[in-house]
Sequence to fold (442 residues):
Amino acid sequence: MPRRESNESDETINRRSKKPRAKSASEIARYTSTFETWSTYHGCEEVAFQDIPRDMRLDVRSVFNVNGLLPKEWLDERSAVGIALNDLMPAGFMQFLKTAGKASPDLFSSKVPASDCKELLSDLQSVFLAWTRLKKMKHSSRKWSEADYVANVYTAIRSTAVQQCDYRAQCSVSLSQPLSCHKVSSNAVCILNSKTACPDVAIFIPSRLVLDLSHRARSLYKVLKAHRAVAHSGSVGGESSFRFQSTPCTKLPDTPGFEFVSVICEDKKPMHDMDGAYRQNRLATTSSVRQLHALHIQAPVFGVVWMHSKVRAHVDWWTVKPGDEYPMIRSAPYPGPGNTARRGTIQFHDWSLDRPQDILQVYLFMRNLDRWTVGRFNDLVHEGIAQLAIDVRNGDKFTPWKRKGDMACLVSTNERDSDATFSAVTPASSPPKRKSARRANR
Fold:
């Protein structure tokens, strides 16, 4: 307990010693004002979908393009394939496909490889089951919770589509450190002191695909970790060390090495609004993008928001303006196929999972994300780490990105010496010690 000054009351001591509680990720995202404070300190910006950089557009479009991925032959009940499906599949399955084909004929094509058809047919039975469950839930008088939607609908779609990547539920990730270009105000401390978020689903590159970056004695991970510019960038073995910066997770992997997230999913209760869910998802995607920036990896991170049978998507990436050393983290809502949001507006496309064509599109979108993660995203990660090694050898510094320390330390320092500029990236390790005063009655 703080030492009592001669003229202080118990109430004054309690008020002086009380430390404001850090807000959780959901509390920060709940209100526009608190999220605005957090996003300002982290250089976040909402932009239009056409603002996606040219070198990323092909990747992003390929992920969202779900046209022609289902066999057109399945829609013809008079064909040999159609007759076989009608005999073997559950009741209502063929009507489910026909409804989707009528509403979105571009989903179907006669050029689907035969090797994909068997896998697709197996997967679509799970998707059809999820759609059937959702219909029953919609027609029920019972109030369904977020957990009910996750168990009956969302997980059936996501786990079916994501088969090659590491699919992690309730994985705690570290939030990013505020940028050093902003001085920390006392009003922002309880917002900026938040260190973790726990998205409902995070999709990682499988560890086997990035093992070559860290396994061997002369691997890029070990070379970077031992380099003076990297080793001196943070505390040895502490939260700012290179091993901690190499993963977005709060818990280190058992084997030292890299971990990378390509997709973050946030599930929300029906009572919440989609904008709040989008804001909360951005806390986690921002951290993933900041990790990519620190490791010199130019790649987007996708966010998917699920709420009350509605699904939205957004794309986040980093950019640095000419002449500036601090990254901007941009986020673009997906406006839907063939649509472009006007510059300066935020326009989401909503998939409604109770519509056959929409639930199929969401499944195919998640399937594309799975394949993109183990393919193109993995390639970009390898290219970025190789570039980081070159840049560090050429004299570039490595800047830790993870949240650490108590932001209140910076407030007290700034208030005491307003002429000095202190970095929010490397806060003091402990608050300044209070000078003791002798009691009056001694």
Residues 356-393 form the longest helix (38 residues).
